[in-house]
Amino acid sequence: SKLELNGKPWPFRVSPDEISFPTKDLEGDTHLVRIAYRCKPRKGIYFNGWGRSGGKRQTWTQGQGIDHRHWIPHQDDQRDKLRTALQLRFPSGFQVISNGELVSCSQKNDTITWDFRMQEEHPSYLIALAIGEYAFETDSVDGEATDFIHYLYPEHSDLFPLHYGKTRELFDWMQLHIGLDYPWNGDYRQVPVQNFKHGAMENTGAVIIGDIFLQDSANLFPERTYLEIQAHEMAHHWFGNYLTAESTESHWLHEGFATYWQWEAKRKFEGPMAYRLSRRQAAQRIWSTYEKIGPFSIQEEKAGSIGFYDKGAWVVSMLMDQTDSAAFREAVVNILRTHPYSVVNTKQFLQLLEAQLGIPLDDFTEAWVSGGELPLIELTEKGNGRWTVSIEPSMPISFDLIGVDSQGNTDKYSFNTIDNGRSIEVAKDVEALIADPAMRVLARWKIPSQELETEQMFSLPDYILSAFISQQPKLSSRRAEQWLQDWPEGQFPESLLTLCRQLKDDKLKVNIFERALNYEEPLTEALLLEESLPQGIPEKIVDRYWRKSSYTAREAALQWYFSNDQKGCIERSREALAYEQVSIQSLRVKGALFLYLLTQEEGQDELKELASPKYEFVTRGLALEGMSIPGKELADLSTFSNCMEDFFSPNSRVARPCRSYVKAILRSDAGNEYVKTIEEVASEWSPKWREVFERLTGQQL
User: Fold this and answer.
1) 148: left (phi over 0), alpha (psi -120 to 50) or beta
2) For the segment 272-318, what is each residue's pLDDT rounded down to a tens digit?
3) I need a surface site. Which of 210, 407, 458, 480 has the fewest CB within 10 A?
4) Is the pLDDT of residue 371 over 90?
5) How many CA atoms lie within 13 A of 362 on its CB side?
6) What is the pLDDT of residue 13?
């Protein structure tokens, strides 16, 4: 509506894509532009819970990659580094969160004016705004430059120690191990929001996280712990926010380094088993994607997050491994120090790295950065301690081999394609050769079956034993049964998990699931992440899983009761609905659904409640899925209306189950009763939305 240039009204033109104005006769290099405007953005900034459907009343942003242009007129390009500020007036009763230092906060009547200022320059996609009703705590220490401000929903205020208790320790550890102090002024804020489009976003000093990661004491499920997310977004303040990739082709520099430090944080704070599981799961995703789409490099969008995050992190890890980790870290720190708040592409970064290390990286870069192939490595025994190594396709690779002799003693043999060629000599008394137990290389292995006595096996460290078991082709039930008979009580948890993964025999899996109850909780969680309770498991063991505090264990037990003991399932589902939970509701969803399916009377009200917008989208989606079962559709006007409101939610994980529920109800006998609701909601839609709705549902508007 108005544009001023250097304090004077100035002509301008507005098109669907841009605001333009003449600058031909301007003198000097610096000018002040002021733009007055109104907008109704479809991306960049999102408004949750302010409409009819309810939910938490929040406003939040997600600018990556070029979405802030939908609500802020500017040249939206991550190659531009900007010093940003935000002043905002909003009704009291809400917290307003943004980047940098809160320089003032003043109230007049029922309105508060917030003024945030950044001292350093950052890309505009990192501009943050989050508004909502929050409790908050400040962690400040005398002499420390950075204060932490943590936000949670008021009803979760007792979760601050659990959710954010390790933030400062993680922060101090990351500064030390990256080797460069946190490069931003102002407080470090973390705030959860509802229906966030991604897991979290690393906005400079104002991290926004999806509230699906809220935790409580019984939430041990690895996919929903916050440490990884917290470490990943924190690492971005060096890799992404500080040193920024020039384009999508170099995006792996952001996500590969952040995911690498996420893994390292797991090793530090959750232990080596959790670290190796994360890397193994990433490798599985990479190989699965490779089989579906063929070769993909970390520089192309072809594989999406699997390429940028998972394979990118593996490449960072291998690059560090190939060049000596201490030298690599020092080189990266020097690049960060000499290119502060700058922009870089892959070629420039690797050239800088070569200059710092003093060694060529061409072969590695061709194979692992620009190349998309993944290697199969085959070991073949030739006798007298000689083994041949076949790598297809040929690539620069380094890894360790662990030789085990008849006494269970081990020797390490290092292999790399430059020094060793295609063969390696080991001691003649080696009875088994275990490949790459430290997971140094992203590869698949083909190794002949090897025999070790159980005394030899159980003299090995757990991670080496785990690698040995995983490398046994066609593992027989007889061998596995003998191992389990001799397995030391309460030891070798990672190996036990690997053994379960290798087995086809449910009887032996039952043995492993029973043993897991005597281990630390993470083994139970890791097992249940990959497996359901096996067929033939005795009810007395299932009862022990039901009595554990872990939601995951209780959900697995409840699922077993539903399939095997419906009377017991009804009783325990009632218990699940009464179970005091703070943030994770999936057990209550399952209890409500099973009661509804088994009794047709109980559980309905709870299921409808859990399908409402006030719950995070994982819980809501599970409830809506249960209410959409063909032949068992649970029709409810309020639920239907809410799903119509979110039919075009920008978050697909909200829109998808809402659409499925609407279509399920329209197919059911109750469908005709909801025509009026459809017309009321659709009256506010654009013609395009109406067209899409008709196409997806077959319902004419």
Assistant:
1) beta
2) 999 999 999 999 999 999 999 999 999 999 999 999 999 999 999 99
3) 407
4) yes
5) 1
6) 96
Identify the bridge partners of residue 114 per DSSP, sorted by sequence position: 88, 105
**Listed residue (501, 412, 492) closest to 459, CA to CA:** 492
Give, to the nearest 10 degrees, the angle between helix 312-323 and helix 325-338: 110
C-alpha distances in Å from residue 107, one per residue of 60, 111, 112, 185: 22, 6, 4, 25
Distances (CA, A) of 332 to 171, 308, 311, 347, 543: 18, 19, 19, 14, 52
C-alpha to C-alpha distance for 453 and 486, rounded to whole angstroms: 10
Q: What are the start-end ranges of the E strands in 262-397? A: 342-344, 376-383, 386-392
Q: Residue 610: left (phi > 0), alpha (psi -120 to 50), or beta?
A: alpha
Nearest to 470 by CA among 492, 495, 489: 495
Give 82-127 as a 3 state SS string: ECCEEEEEEECCCEEEECCEEEEEEEECCEEEEEEECCCCECHHHC
* C-beta contacts of 676-685 below 8 A and 24+ residues apart: 677/637, 677/640, 677/641, 677/644, 678/644, 681/641, 681/644, 681/645, 681/647, 682/644, 685/648
Helix (H) or strand (E) holding 272: helix 272-293
- Partners of 14 in beta bridges: 19
Q: Terminus-to-terminus CA distance in the chain, angstroms?
A: 35
CA nearest to 584, candidates 219, 163, 230: 219
Q: Match 């190349």 to its residue by tokens.
A: 371
Q: Are the C-beta atoms of residues 375 and 277 closer than 8 Å to each other?
A: no
Is residue 463 a contact partner of residue 438, using CB atoms and an 8 Å limit? yes
Per-residue b/e over 234-254, b at no fewer than 16 CB within 10 Å?
Answer: bbbbbbbbbbbbbeebbbbbb
| For residue 88, pLDDT beyond 70 | yes
Between strands 135-139 and 148-152, the pairing is antiparallel
| Element at 684 (helix H, strand E) | none
Q: Concatenated DSSP letters for 435-458?
A: E-TT--S--EEE-------HHHHT
CA 382/CA 384 separation, integer angstroms = 7
- The pLDDT tens digits of the residues spanning 302-315 come to 999 999 999 999 99
Number of H helices, E strands in the chain: 27, 26
Beta carbons within 10 angstroms of residue 52's beta carbon: 12
- pLDDT 10s digits, 442-494: 999 999 999 999 999 999 999 999 999 999 988 899 999 999 999 999 899 99
Question: Which residue blocks in 487-616 are alpha helix, DSSP H?
Answer: 493-502, 506-516, 521-530, 539-546, 551-564, 566-578, 586-599, 604-610
pLDDT in tens, 491-520: 999 999 999 999 989 999 999 999 999 888
Is residue 606 helix, strand or coil?
helix
Q: Taking a C-beta distance cutoff of 8 angstroms, is the pair 562, 569 a contact? A: yes
| One-character DSSP codes across 8-68 | EE---EE-SS-EE---TT--SS---EEEE-----SSSEEEESSSTT-S--EEEE--TTTTG
Pairing type for strands 33-36 and 129-132 reads unpaired
Instruction: Tell me how far apart the alpha carbons of residues 302 and 306 are, in angstroms, rounded to a whole number.
Output: 9
Question: What is the pLDDT of the chain when averaged over all its residues?
Answer: 93
Q: How far apart are CA 464 and CA 495, in angstroms?
A: 8
Any residues with CB less than 8 A from the CB of 143 and at least 6 apart, and which? none
- How many other C-beta atoms lie within 10 A of the C-beta of residue 613? 25
Handedness of CA 70, 76, 77, 79 (dihedral sign): negative
- Of 59, 188, 203, residue with least CA distance to 125: 203
